[in-house]
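1st attempt posting a full record on here, be nice pls
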Amino acid sequence: MTTTVKEVPLKTFPFTGNRELSKRWYLATNAYLRVNPKIFDTDEKKVLYALGLMTEGSAQCWAEDFYVAAESATITSTVTGLTTIKADYGKWEDFVTAFMQAFSPVDTKGAAMNKLSTWKMRAGTPASTHIATMNNYISRAEITDFETKKTFLIQSLDNDLVTGLFNSGLANAATYADLTQNILAQENNMNTLKAIQRRNNNNRRTQNNYTQNNNNPRYVPRAKDPNAMDVDSTDIRP
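the predicted structure (as tokens):
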């Protein structure tokens, strides 16, 4: 009886040659291969899977060269001495070494410092997501000093969020962890205030509509004179 091997759908992504993403791509791809050992049970399968994700940009050119070299590999018989072509994609570890040599960031620390100096919080991005991005750059830039991390983080925030932090006193944190928690708290306070303002505006519009409707002219029948005589018809004879 044949047992079907079930894939563990761990997320990975295509690689285009962007050096800043090379390490992240390798870690994600390697993790996917490791949690699916029964599917990728040979070095060749691992290498071919990785090459299959390199279909754009400079990574595509590199992969094509790798394919050609692997498919053109030769083997010489120790018995006959004859040389024949036999595809050889090598070991996974050798592939990783070659990949890292080709795509490792030229200056990871310098690139991260440049990002920290220019990165700004994008409209609609939750503070938690923005902080995670900044923490990644801070780690890659190898910054450990609290004041430096604080400066980079605060100057990257949305202007309204920065104003709220200083007005509320939440910018005065003793540690970097406290600062990030205060930013999240300030964002929550601002979102709560905006929700209250929207609700009040909706109530105000509803009240204005009600008042306007009540002020519309209405037909009111004229009051009948109780002393007037009812006349049902008039009979005019010659």
